[in-house]
Amino acid sequence: MSDATLNLVQAAIDAAKTAYAPYSNFHVGAALLLDNGEIVTGSNFENASYGMTLCAETVAIAKASSDGKLRKIREIAVAGGLEGRVGKAADPITPCGRCRQIIKEVADLTSTDIPVHCAHASGYETFLLSELLPHGFGPASLK
Fold first, then answer.
1. Is residue 116 part of a domain?
2. Annotated active-site positions, please?
């Protein structure tokens, strides 16, 4: 486990503390590592109309995009769990399907098979996006 990845995973755990999750009580944080070493975070934001809920990964990626840093994303960390238990699950918490598709868009923009570090009680497990979303639909699929 590298110190840089541990710091990124910890940033995701810390971001989950700011989640707005009054309905599910499931807090999720995401942290993006940019090519210059900067970390951008996001947390989930629930809505009474469940379909309007924003996932942590989407919030972090939109934040990076609005700051003009979308093409600088190199790695992602995700941590989730019930309030007070973020990062304590036995199995890694992975991005939902919608978020995997959002991450795919970034991967195609950066020509990177983005590593996704998923927190759990023993630390984290790393997956490449291509493992989480095999045969993903991307910009090349539109040609």
1. yes
2. 57
